[in-house]
């Protein structure tokens, strides 16, 4: 039930999961679970008429009052895709040890940028909130949503105050994860060099 964000009082109910390349969850529009309701729901999912169900907590009161802004599924796009700001988001899990180690560094980072008019430091519990456009596979994951373009850059640098500051201050250049295309090009160059070395 937790996987679907359901509480005991929500039962009986139904959900549907599509296991393809990405796992997708669906929730019916009605809480009725009669034969025709089930048939309509399943048919709607299979025909692509039912939108996927994404978990989201309610927007917490005072979510933007602290230096680290608290994002949930319901307010994420509005904040992260604000083209007038560089928005750094930590996707975390409450049980994650690495996330707990990062927390004081991230809080200190947010203190340094709290008066900035064009940098937002934010976090989102990715176990309780899901996004259609962003899938998180490990914790913590840090992404920069760039001012002006909304280009998303994954952070892969040192998880230190200075390492993350450089990432922000260089608009995501210093500490950026290598993109797959660049990795493929590097592998091709390495393969070509290995072939030359064999000759």
Polypeptide structure, described:
Helix content is 31%, strand content 17%. With 199 residues, the protein is α/β, with parallel strands linked by helices. It folds into 2 domains: 2-47, no CATH class; 69-170, Glutaredoxin. The strands form 2 sheets. The protein has a 5-stranded mixed β-sheet. Strand 6 and strand 7 (152-154) form a beta hairpin. The chain is elongated, with a radius of gyration of 21 Å. The model has no long low-confidence stretch (mean pLDDT 88).
Any idea what the shape is? elongated
Second-tier CATH architecture of the largest domain: 3-Layer(aba) Sandwich
- What is the ordering of alpha helices and beta strands? EEHEHEHEEEHH
Q: Tell me what portion of residues adopts beta-strand conformation.
A: 15-25%
Compute the CA-based radius of gyration: 21 Å
Number of domains: 2
Number of helices: 5
CATH topology of the largest domain: Glutaredoxin
Uncertain stretches of 5 or more adjacent residues: none
Spatial order of strands in the largest sheet: 3-5-4-6-7
- End-to-end Cα distance: 60 Å
Name the CATH homologous superfamily of the largest domain. Glutaredoxin
In total, the number of strands is: 7
Class computed from helices, strands and strand pairing: alpha/beta
Helix content: 25-40%
CATH class of the largest domain: Alpha Beta
Mean pLDDT: 88
Strand count, sense and barrel status of the largest sheet are: 5 strands, mixed
The assembly state of the depicted protein chains is single chain
GO biological process, one term: protein folding
Keywords: Disulfide bond, Endoplasmic reticulum, Isomerase, Redox-active center, Repeat, Signal
GO molecular function: protein disulfide isomerase activity
Protein name: protein disulfide-isomerase
């Amino acid at each position: 039930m937790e996987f679907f964000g359901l509480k005991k009082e929500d039962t009986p109910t139904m959900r549907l999961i599509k296991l393809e390349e990405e796992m997708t969850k669906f929730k019916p529009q009605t809480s009725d679970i009669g034969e025709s309701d089930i048939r309509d729901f399943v048919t709607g999912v299979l025909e692509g008429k039912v939108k996927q169900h994404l978990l989201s907590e309610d927007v917490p009161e005072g979510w933007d009052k602290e230096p680290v802004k608290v994002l949930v599924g319901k307010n994420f796009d509005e904040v992260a895709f604000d083209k007038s700001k560089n928005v750094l988001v930590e996707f975390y899990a409450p049980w994650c040890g690495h996330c707990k180690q990062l927390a004081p560094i991230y809080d200190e980072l947010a203190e340094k940028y709290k008066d900035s008019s064009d940098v937002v430091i934010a976090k989102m519990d990715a176990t309780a909130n899901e996004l259609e456009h962003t899938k998180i596979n490990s914790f913590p994951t840090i992404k920069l949503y760039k001012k002006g373009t909304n280009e998303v850059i994954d952070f892969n640098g040192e998880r230190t105050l200075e390492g993350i500051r450089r990432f922000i201050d260089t608009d995501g250049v210093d500490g950026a994860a290598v993109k797959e295309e660049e990795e493929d090009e590097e592998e091709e160059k390495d393969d070509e060099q290995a072939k030359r070395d064999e000759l």
